[in-house]
C-alpha cells in the first residue's frame, strides 16, 4: 500500500508541474519572481497559501493537494483492510504461519531426508495435546517453505538450462512456471477428490497435500543439476535415485497419515476392501512422482 | 504439454458444467443413480457410490447460480475477443 501512496504523490506532483507555467489555476503574487519551470514541488504553493506558512514542505501547503493526499491514503488503508479481511476469510493465516515456522536445522535435516530417506527411523508426526508440533520442533511435520523455495529455484534452473541450450526467451519462463503450478493444482485436486470419495478420515488438510506435492521439486532440482553437470547419463542416474528416494519418502509419510484411521472404524460396515483402497492411493501418489519429474525435466537435458 | 493458468480455468469450468448438467429425473434415476439410491448405507462410512452421488447433487445445488454468471461472462468474452 505504500506504492499507492507514492503513486498518488507523483500524480499530484505531475499535476502541479503541469500548472507550473504560472497561474492557470492560481495567481502568482510573489514579487518579481519569474515563472520558474522546476517541475513538481514549487512555487504555486506560496502563491495561494492562506496561512502564513514559511518554507516547510511545499506539498503540504497546498490545501487541495493535502486534502486529496489524505483522502488517497485513507482510501488505500480501507482497501488494505478489505483485502486482508477477504484474504483471511479464504485462507486462515494462522494455519499458514504454522507451515512457515521453520529454522535452518529443520531445513537441512528435511533436505537430507528427502534425498536419502532410508536411514530415518521415526516417521511419526509428534503432537502436543492434539495440535501438531511446528516444523521447528518436529522434523516429520510438513512445511511450505521448502516447496515454495524449491519451486522458485526450479523455475530459475529451467531458465538457466534453456539458456545453456540457446533456447531461452522470457515467455518460456512464465510458461514453465504456470505449467508446474498447474500440475501441482491437478495433483492436489485429484488427491482431495480421492480422499473424499473413499471417506478417509485423515487429518490431512489442503496445505499438507500442497506441501507433500511440493517436495518433489527438491528431487527435480537435484536431477536437473546432475543432468547439467554430468550430461545425459548423470541425468538418468539422478532421476532414478531421486525417484526412489521420493517414493520411499511419500509412502512412509502418507502411510502414517492415511492408513491408521482404519482403527477408528470399529463398525466395519464399509466394504471389506477399504484398506486396499487407501494403500492404492498412497502407492498411486508415490508412483505419480517420478512420472511428473521425468515429464517436467526431460526437455531440459538433452 | 504446456499448461497455462487460462487452460486450467477453462478445464475447471468445463468439468463443473459437465457435472451440473446431469439431470436428476431424466438421467440419473434411470441409471440407478438417483437421490434415493444414494442414502443406502448406514453407519459411519457410506460407500463410494453414495459419495459420488452426494458430490453430484451438491455441485448441482451450489454451483448453479455461479455457473450461470461465469458461463455468461465466458460467452461475452469469447464473442468479443475470439
TrEMBL record, chain A:
Membrane topology note: Multi-pass membrane protein
Any GO BP: protein transport
Major localization class: endoplasmic reticulum
Domain of life: Eukaryota
Keywords annotated in UniProt: Endoplasmic reticulum, Golgi apparatus, Membrane, Protein transport, Transmembrane, Transmembrane helix, Transport
InterPro entries associated with the record: Yif1_fam (IPR005578)
Transmembrane segments: 144-166, 172-197, 209-230, 236-254, 277-296
GO CC terms, sorted: COPII-coated ER to Golgi transport vesicle; endoplasmic reticulum membrane; endoplasmic reticulum-Golgi intermediate compartment; Golgi membrane
Subcellular location: Endoplasmic reticulum membrane; Golgi apparatus membrane
Family: Belongs to the YIF1 family.
Role description: Has a role in transport between endoplasmic reticulum and Golgi.
Record's protein name: Protein YIF1
Source organism: Pleuronectes platessa
UniProtKB/TrEMBL annotation, chain B:
Family: Belongs to the YOS1 family.
Protein task: Regulator of endoplasmic reticulum secretion that acts as a key determinant of brain size. Required for secretion of extracellular matrix proteins. Required for correct brain development by depositing sufficient extracellular matrix proteins for tissue integrity and the proliferation of neural progenitors. Acts as a regulator of the unfolded protein response (UPR).
Source organism: Pleuronectes platessa
Signal peptide span: 1-18
Gene Ontology biological process terms from the UniProt entry: endoplasmic reticulum to Golgi vesicle-mediated transport; protein transport
TM ranges: 62-81
Keywords: Membrane, Protein transport, Signal, Transmembrane, Transmembrane helix, Transport
CC annotations in GO: COPII-coated ER to Golgi transport vesicle; endoplasmic reticulum membrane; Golgi membrane
One family name in Pfam for this protein: Yos1
Domain of life: Eukaryota
Main localization of the protein described in the UniProt heading: membrane
Keyword Signal on entry: yes
Name of the protein in question: Immediate early response 3-interacting protein 1
Localization of this protein: Membrane
Amino acid at each position: 500500500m505504500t506504492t499507492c501512496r507514492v503513486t498518488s504523490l507523483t500524480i499530484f506532483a505531475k499535476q502541479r508541474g503541469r500548472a507550473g507555467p504560472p497561474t492557470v489555476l492560481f495567481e502568482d503574487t510573489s514579487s518579481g519572481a519569474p515563472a520558474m519551470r522546476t517541475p513538481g514541488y514549487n512555487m504555486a504553493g506560496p502563491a495561494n497559501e492562506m496561512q502564513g506558512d514559511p518554507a516547510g514542505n511545499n506539498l503540504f501547503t497546498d490545501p487541495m493537494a493535502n486534502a486529496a493526499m489524505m483522502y488517497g491514503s485513507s482510501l488505500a488503508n480501507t482497501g488494505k483492510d478489505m483485502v486482508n479481511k477477504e484474504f483471511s476469510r479464504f485462507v486462515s493465516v494462522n494455519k499458514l504461519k504454522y507451515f512457515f515456522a521453520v529454522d535452518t536445522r529443520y531445513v537441512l535435516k528435511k533436505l537430507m531426508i528427502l534425498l536419502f530417506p532410508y536411514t530415518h527411523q521415526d516417521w511419526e508426526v509428534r503432537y502436543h495435546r492434539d495440535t501438531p508440533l511446528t516444523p521447528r520442533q518436529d522434523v516429520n511435520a510438513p512445511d511450505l517453505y521448502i516447496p515454495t523455495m524449491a519451486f522458485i529455484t526450479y523455475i530459475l534452473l529451467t531458465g538457466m538450462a534453456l539458456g545453456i541450450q540457446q533456447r531461452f526467451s522470457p515467455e518460456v519462463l512464465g510458461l514453465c512456471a504456470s505449467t508446474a503450478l498447474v500440475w501441482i493444482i491437478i495433483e492436489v485436486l485429484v488427491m482431495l477428490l480421492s480422499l473424499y470419495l473413499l471417506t478417509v478420515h485423515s487429518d490431512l488438510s489442503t496445505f499438507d497435500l500442497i506441501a507433500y506435492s511440493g517436495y518433489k521439486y527438491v528431487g527435480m532440482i537435484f536431477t536437473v543439476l546432475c543432468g547439467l553437470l554430468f550430461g545425459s547419463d548423470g541425468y538418468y542416474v539422478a532421476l532414478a535415485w531421486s525417484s526412489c528416494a521420493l517414493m520411499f519418502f511419500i509412502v512412509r509419510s502418507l502411510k502414517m497419515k492415511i492408513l491408521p484411521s482404519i482403527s477408528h472404524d470399529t463398525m466395519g460396515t464399509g466394504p471389506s476392501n477399504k484398506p486396499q483402497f487407501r494403500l492404492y492411493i498412497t502407492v498411486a501418489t508415490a508412483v505419480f512422482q517420478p512420472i511428473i519429474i521425468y515429464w517436467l525435466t526431460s526437455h531440459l537435458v538433452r | 504439454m504446456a499448461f497455462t493458468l487460462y487452460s486450467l480455468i477453462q478445464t475447471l469450468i468445463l468439468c463443473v458444467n459437465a457435472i451440473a448438467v446431469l439431470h436428476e429425473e431424466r438421467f440419473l434415476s434411470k441409471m440407478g443413480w438417483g437421490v434415493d439410491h444414494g442414502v443406502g448405507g448406514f453407519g459411519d462410512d457410506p460407500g463410494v457410490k453414495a459419495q459420488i452421488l452426494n458430490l453430484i447433487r451438491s455441485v448441482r445445488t451450489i454451483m448453479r447460480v455461479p455457473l450461470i454468471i461465469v458461463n455468461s461472462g465466458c460467452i461475452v468474452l469469447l464473442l468479443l475477443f475470439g
